[in-house]
Amino acid sequence: MVLETERMSLRRLVSADAPFILALLNDPDWIRYIGDRGVRSVEAARDYLEARMLSQYEKHGFGLWMVESRASSEPMGICGLVKRDDLPEPDLGFAFMPGYRGKGHAYESALAVRDYATGVLRIARLLAITTPVNDASARLLRKLGFVAQGRMSWSGDDKDPVDVYAFAP
Question: Alpha-carbon distance 57 to 41, whole Å?
């Protein structure tokens, strides 16, 4: 367990979370707003999880965490911190399954992660990125106190650019 909120627990992801990660990566909104990772089997999800998510814990001491209901222990989504080569500081990331959207879960977990990052980990400036068409994420970031910094191309590819937000306590 990394964090707890009133309704949720956030814990490190483990390889056994691959079936949930498979479902999340193939959610139409993940594909639309984050991108199609081409992960189509539990084995591929396990490989993705180990290479892209679990490795962050060892490299940086943080990463994306599984968000679970405290009442039922059911997985709801992921929320946490990512250190990307393309960004100078860690960024806040979150994604929830459809049944958990629009109910304040992303805000509640992202607020806890933001406060943990700046308070416990002493990260002086926290970033967040979102696609320009993802209005819900942009609204959430502004509600969390993030301020728009501008738009940047992403990894030099032909994907749409991302909007960059920053939070400094």
Answer: 24
pLDDT in tens, 123-157: 999 999 999 999 999 999 999 999 999 999 876 55
The Cα–Cα gap between 88 and 90 comes to: 7
Write out the H or E segment, with its range, that includes residue 69. Answer: strand 64-69
Map residue 19 onto helix, strand or coil.
Answer: helix
By 3-state DSSP, what share of the chain in percent is helix, strand and coil, each rounded to 5?
40, 25, 35
Domain boundaries, the chain: 3-167
Kindly give, in sequence order, each residue whose CB lies less than 8 Å from that of residue 34, ignoring residues fewer than 6 positions away: 95, 131
What's the one-letter identity of residue 68?
A: E
Q: Which amino acid is at 163?
A: D
Cβ of 155: how many Cβ atoms within 10 Å?
11
Sequence-separated (6 or more) residues with CB below 8 Å from residue 44: 22, 38
CATH topology of domain 3-167: Aminopeptidase (3.40.630)
Task: Count Cα neighbours of 137 within 13 Å in the Cβ-side half-sphere.
Answer: 23
**Which stretches in the chain have pLDDT values below 50?**
none
d(CA 63, CA 58): 9
Per-residue pLDDT, 153: 87
What whole-number distance in Å separates Cα of residue 114 and Cα of residue 126? 8
